[in-house]
Automatic annotation (TrEMBL):
This is Membrane protein. Keywords: Membrane, Transmembrane, Transmembrane helix. InterPro entries: DUF389 (IPR005240). It comes from the Bacteria.
Length: 312
């Protein structure tokens, strides 16, 4: 369930109220004339079931409220109301599976921004992964996977491609390229520094590392894991199961592969650097392809359900 707060110019309030009244997905509508001051207008409150939220927002777009008003959405954890129960019965589908397209565009847009915090997390995660590689410690690899923020831009790229938002796709691609480049460069420098003070050395990279060697030795299963992670990750973002995202991040080796490649470059081990780079490319490509495919299937299912609801 979503709570919607709308500021609408008075000359469009009647049309807005009619749109809300005509939708089975909307309930608990309240109109407060002249309550808004910045921007000026009427204040409208309503509750919308997730299954029908995207359709309602699309219809509100015809009123051009975003230009001189506002539409705000908030998640409602508990709604005790017979009218809410009735709306959930009337709208096809389940709220947990519903995709609110405007919501995921907004969320992935924020996560795809090349910011100082994003770069810092990328660098820290990659350096931690590099130490985990040299020490052959899976716990550090897992920690680096969980700390890495790279899935945000990957999801933004998928959404930008499917929703035909070139600005979002470009922003996400820039964040990915800049993030991995900066993280790899700093990790190379960090490796040289740690080597200079005697904390690590080249022999640690060349020694047998049975617990982390998979990072630079990709195989067919690398594609399988990447595809499955891409599907699960996108579902966790588009549905109400966002708590599963951390588990998805721990299943892919993008950050560890970048860390391993940087260490191998720092110590001049080209074969291992190339293997790590290939692992990174495989995981990134698999996640994007699976994410795009997942969104396309969800959009097809949503359109069919939306069309059936309109016909009903």
């Amino acid at each position: 369930m979503l709570h919607m707060r709308i500021i609408v110019p008075p000359d469009r309030t009647a049309r807005l109220a009619q749109i809300l009244a005509d939708s089975d997905a909307v309930t608990n509508v309240a109109v407060v004339p002249g309550a808004a001051r910045e921007p000026d207008g009427d204040l409208v409150f309503c509750d919308v079931v997730r299954e029908g939220a995207s359709g309602v927002i699309d219809r509100l777009g015809d009123l051009d409220i975003q230009r001189d008003g506002a539409i705000m959405l908030e998640h409602v954890d508990i709604a005790l109301s017979a009218s809410v129960d009735r709306a959930e019965r009337l709208v096809p589908g389940l709220g947990v599976d519903a995709v609110v397209w405007q919501e995921i565009e907004h969320n992935t847009g924020e996560e795809s921004t090349l910011s100082g915090a994003f770069l810092t997390f990328m660098i820290v995660a990659t350096v931690v992964a590099a130490i985990g590689v040299l020490r052959d410690l899976p716990i550090l690899i897992v920690g680096a996977m969980a700390a890495g923020p790279d899935y945000g831009p990957l999801a933004g790229l998928c959404v930008g491609l499917v929703r035909r938002r070139p600005r979002l796709a470009r922003r996400a691609l820039v964040a990915l390229v800049a993030g991995f480049s900066a993280a790899a460069a700093v990790t190379v420098l960090a490796t040289w520094l740690l080597d200079a003070i005697g904390v690590v050395d080249r022999s640690m990279l060349l020694a047998p590392r049975p617990l982390t060697s998979f990072i630079w030795q990709p195989d067919a299963l690398s594609w399988v894991v990447g595809v499955l992670a891409g599907i699960a990750g996108m579902l966790s973002l588009t549905s109400a199961k966002s708590t599963t995202l951390v588990g998805v991040l721990i299943s892919v080796t993008t950050i560890p592969a970048a860390g391993n490649a940087a260490v191998a470059l720092a110590y001049g081990v080209p074969d291992e650097a190339a293997g790590s780079a290939l692992q990174l490319v495989i995981n990134l490509a698999a996640i994007v392809l699976a994410g795009v495919a997942t969104l396309l299937v969800q959009r097809l299912v949503w359109r069919r359900g939306h069309r059936g609801a309109d016909e009903h």
